[in-house]
Design a protein that fits this description.
It is a single chain. Helices cover about 10% and strands about 40% of the residues. By secondary structure, it is mainly β. It folds into four domains: about 150 residues, Glucose Permease (Domain IIA); about 160 residues, no CATH class; about 110 residues, Chondroitinase Ac, Chain A, domain 3 (Sandwich), CATH 2.60.220.30; about 90 residues, Immunoglobulin-like.
């Protein structure tokens, strides 16, 4: 009876999933080509969706993949930019990000809320069925807003409960893929901590699917690292892979598969790569080993750590299997011999910081505080007070928690102090604004990146220029007012525009320093209009742009 029950349950789940997919439509009308895959390794996060190419264009119609209702709308100048979340009756939510604009009924709803709150950036949670949509209905137009580096549609499927991302490749997107993943390099490490030594082994392609290397002689505990990428047909982007496994003499020691993930997984991405290699040489080596601190939801079996024990005098076959979602597979086949000599040696530390302890470096007018378990491992970090510069190590180690930096605010005239800020110096020696606040006569801030801090100053206010009109011009046939806005140093914090004393919605796109106002947003009875835009940077420098224009009421 039990077996019949489980068979019926599985059959029901399969039929309901098939039924939901039968009403499913692709989010774009063009052939689906990917520039990013689910679970792909990105800087500090796993990619939660698919990046769909839009032929280098903006403004393509984006459709709801299933019937449902808009459950969330977000407009931001960072992150997902303009984004829509649509909840579906089958317990899933679809997400569409980096949009140029929303479809008319959604745009009207959002614009009304923006004017009520007098804020361009906004997050809304409409009630169920307040904004109902049908499968295939146009809901938005593709764009390049937020942290996007070219026109595309970021598309996600999630389990509504818990908002857990699902690999959208499960759905009928019609993606052609007959290409195997490509493996570029093989590495063996002596451990999982940052001081584990690494050795590279050149690969030779044995046939279409198998890579091999010369015989490897080593001993002790080792684990595998690889550099790799995948491509789909008709796409030249180097994307992430779907699954990986490591076997030694036929026994599986490590595996993962990207079907579901949690946003919490991204906390641990930097211990699943060679962080120092990425930081110093911009090369991403993927580690096929479970770090003791990892709590990754997509690991197939957390007990399979990926640690391989090589004993002297014994022979081993190492098999690394890499797959994409369409089951195109590549392998590394290598043969290891246990050596009686010492294996890969660890590097020694000069300034060890034990991850299980907290540390306070106090330099009277500056200090650095690392709380317990700031790092994943014991690390080698030198903290120095170098005059005006506070040096807090090199960006060689990932952090689990942010550390705190404090700088005593120096004495001086009020204007100089108001224009000063605590800056973070990047690898290229450029200083950027560091998010800090004033407390007890100190600038304070938290960072999850090692580096240097200095006191810097920004005395120049943002600049605003009209692009498509001049002062006192008639704009009877104009639909939009366009501006260029920029700040030379600390960055723009706030923008407020008004016409005749009424707040106006200015669409800000930091990537191209543009501001746009839609003249159809509001209806003014007067003919003469006084336009003002005030912009403030991160340290409080302000610019007030004023201009007059003429336009009859709509």
């Amino acid at each position: 009876m039990k077996s019949i029950f489980f068979f019926l349950l599985l059959t029901f789940r399969f039929l309901s999933h098939s039924q939901s997919q039968s009403d499913w439509v692709a989010p774009l009308n063009i052939p689906i080509q990917l520039s990013g895959t689910f679970g792909e390794f990105r800087n500090n996060h796993f990619h939660a969706g698919l990046d769909i190419r839009t032929q280098g264009r903006q403004g393509l119609s984006v459709k709801s993949v299933q019937s449902g209702w808009v459950s969330r709308v977000r407009v931001s100048v960072s992150g997902y930019g303009k984004a829509l979340y649509i909840e579906h009756p089958d317990g899933t939510t679809s997400v569409y990000a980096h949009l140029k604009k929303f479809a008319p009924k959604i745009e009207t709803y959002v614009k009304e809320k923006q004017y009520q709150k007098e804020s361009y950036t906004i997050q809304l949670f409409p009630k169920a069925n307040e904004l109902a949509v049908k499968a295939g209905e146009i809901i938005a137009y593709s764009g390049n807003t937020g942290e996007s580096y070219g026109p595309h549609l970021h598309f996600e499927m999630r389990e509504t409960k818990g908002q857990l991302p699902i690999n959208a490749m499960e759905y009928p997107l019609g993606i052609e893929d007959t290409q195997r993943p490509q493996i570029q390099n093989l590495y063996l490490y002596s451990g999982t901590d940052p001081f584990s030594s690494r050795k590279e082994y050149p690969l030779v392609k044995k046939n279409d699917s198998v890579y091999t290397t010369a015989g490897i002689s080593t001993s002790g505990e080792v684990n595998v690292g690889v550099r790799l990428f995948d491509r789909q047909n008709q796409s030249y982007n180097k994307n992430g892979v779907y699954s990986a496994s490591v076997r030694l003499n036929g026994i599986e020691y490590f595996s993962y598969q990207m079907d579901r993930m949690s946003f919490n997984d991204s906390k641990y991405i930097n211990v699943l790569i060679d962080y120092r290699e990425l930081s110093e040489n911009n090369r991403r080596i993927q580690r096929l080993v479970a770090h003791p601190k990892q709590k990754l939801s997509f690991l197939q079996d957390s007990t399979r750590s990926g640690r391989l024990k090589i004993e002297p005098g014994k022979s081993y076959q190492l098999l690394v299997e890499i797959k994409d979602y369409h089951q195109n597979t590549s392998y590394i086949e290598a043969y290891l011999t246990g050596s009686s000599e010492k294996g890969i040696q660890k590097i020694t530390m000069e300034n060890p910081l034990d991850f299980s302890k907290d540390y306070l470096f106090d330099f009277e007018n500056k200090s650095v505080y690392f709380p317990k378990e700031s790092f994943f491992d014991t690390v080698d970090v030198k903290v120095e007070n170098l005059g005006d510069t506070l040096y807090v190590g090199k960006d060689d180690y990932p952090l689990q928690k942010a550390y705190e930096v404090k700088y005593k605010i120096p004495k001086g005239d009020s204007l100089t102090i108001a224009q000063s800020f605590l800056g973070f110096v990047n690898k290229k020696g450029k200083t950027r604004f560091f998010s800090s606040y004033h407390k007890g006569g100190f600038w304070q801030g938290k960072s999850k990146t090692l580096g240097s801090f200095v006191i810097s100053r920004d005395s120049v206010a943002p600049t605003i220029k009209a692009v498509n009109f001049k002062d006192k011009q008639w704009l009877s046939n104009y639909s939009f007012l366009r501006f260029k806005i920029s700040d030379d140093y600390s960055g723009i914090k706030t923008i407020r525009g008004e016409i005749n004393g009424r707040w106006i919605r200015l669409e800000h796109e930091p990537k191209n320093n543009s501001l746009v106002y839609d003249l159809n947003d509001l209806n003014f009875e007067a003919t003469s209009h006084q336009l003002t835009i005030e912009a403030e940077d991160q340290v409080g420098n302000k610019t007030l742009f004023k201009q007059e224009f003429y336009k009859k009421s709509n």
